Amino acid sequence: MEAIDKTLLEAAMRVRKYAHAPYSGFHVGAAILADDGNIYAGCNVENAAYPLGSCAETSAISAMLAGGGRRIKRILTFGPGIEPVTPCGGCRQRIREFAEPDVPIVSLGADGGEVLVRSLKQLLPHSFGPEFLEDMK
Ligand code: THU
After folding, report:
1. Does the CB atom of residue 56 touch ligand 1 within 6 A?
2. Which parts of 68-131 are beta strand (E)?
3. Whole-angstrom Cα distance, residue 109 to residue 79?
4. 58 lines ligand 1 (CB under 6 A)
5. Mutation test residue for ligand 1: of 23, 24, 83, the one with most atoms within 8 Å of CB
6. Ligand 1 pocket member 55 (CB < 6 A)
7. Measured distance CA(106)–CA(9) in Å, rounded
8. How far is the CA of 87 from the centre of ligand 1 (A)?
9. Helix, strand, coil share of the chain (percent; to 5)
10. For burial by CB atoms within 10 Å, which of 1, 18, 21, 88 has the most?
11. Model pTM?
12. Torsion of CA 48, 79, 15, 120, to 10 degrees
């Protein structure tokens, strides 16, 4: 865990308190270090119409874009349990849209000691991304 991860963790913990997760009870916070040097955080936002819920990572990406950040340089996710809470498959693809393959994804569980650090390309190998569409315009 690098020094920046402490700052990212603090941001994720702060925003996780505002998670709207009455259906799963699984409160998640995510924090992004963006290319503008700022940190953008988000929490999960569930909905009574279950499929409409958003993950913390999705919220953090929206906050980044709305705040003027364009690219993800590092992202941390923090949720309940012993195991590190890694981004779901859908969020790995959303991160892929705004991050280079080597960008570190840091995952922690609130009740566990292990800090899992994996690159985007480790968590989403052989992935599809924006460059595949470049010649189609
Ligand atoms: N969730 C996240 O926000 N991020 C993750 O990395 C894993 C799952 C949310 C989605 C849903 O609101 C709840 O956790 C249970 O899946």
Report:
1. yes
2. 72-79, 104-109, 115-119
3. 5
4. no
5. 24
6. yes
7. 9
8. 8
9. 35, 25, 40
10. 21
11. 0.96
12. -100
Cβ–ligand 1 distance for 26 under 6 Å, the answer yes
Q: Tell me if the domain spanning 3-136 has CATH number 3.30.1360.30.
A: no
Q: What is the residue type of 81? A: G
**Separation CA 71–CA 97 (nearest Å):** 9
Q: What is the pLDDT tens value at each position of the chain, 137 positions in all? A: 899 999 999 999 999 999 999 999 999 999 999 999 999 999 999 999 999 999 999 999 999 999 999 999 999 999 999 999 999 999 999 999 999 999 999 999 999 889 999 999 999 999 999 999 998 87
